[in-house]
Amino acid sequence: MRVSSYRFFALDVETACSDVASICQIGIACVKSDDMIQTWSTYVNPRTHFSPFNSRLHGIGPAHVTDAPDFAEAIALVEPLLARHHIIQHSNFDRRAIHGAHALIGRKAPPWTWGDSVRIARRAWPEFIGNGGHGLAHLKRRLKLTFVHHDAGEDARAAAEVVLHAEKRTGQTFEAMLFSAGQVR
User: Where is the Exonuclease domain (predicted)?
Assistant: First the structure.
């Protein structure tokens, strides 16, 4: 995999329970320089309980993660690559989860450059404010995206597609939309 061939990554996580650090799945969408998207996902053993609510939401339970790597092992696979690119999340949840999971293993979260596809969507489709909003479920319908909601790999891909659609609609790069909207690096 050539590092220079990626423009940005979109990242999504699913959690086992209400503890934001209880990551049980990580998904990454890798957006290549030609805007093609490759996805990668893995289950993660959160080493904690699963709440019935979360399991109903995403369909992941203890049996799915029995032989999965824990967070430290899973993040080690992708951390070097993520450190060199913008990382897009859809809302602030994923960043908080990554920071929480790092704290849980006694490590400081890496100083990645985060961006939010919700902010990008608000710039591209201001008419959705008060008219369905900028959540993935609404954007799925309005932009005719095809994905399985609450699967980390699929949601990461959807966030990446939102960014690409927004770039086409506005004629601006995702960086221009993020940083003109006051996004913090």
Answer: 7-172
Compute the distance between CA of residue 1 and CA of residue 162 in angstroms, rounded to an integer. 24
Predicted local distance difference test score (pLDDT) of residue 185: 47
> pTM, whole model, 2 decimals?
0.92
Residues 6+ apart with CB under 8 A from 102: 75, 108, 109, 110
DSSP class of residue 171?
A: S
Structure tokens at 65: 């993660």
CA-based nearest residue to 164, from 39, 33, 5: 33
pLDDT means per 10 residues in the chain (185 residues)?
76 98 98 96 98 96 98 96 94 96 97 95 94 90 87 96 96 89 50
Cα separation of 94 and 15, whole Å?
Answer: 10
Architecture of the CATH domain 3-180: 2-Layer Sandwich (3.30)
Rounded to whole angstroms, how far apart are CA atoms 153 and 115? Answer: 17
CB-based contact 43:15 (threshold 8 Å):
no
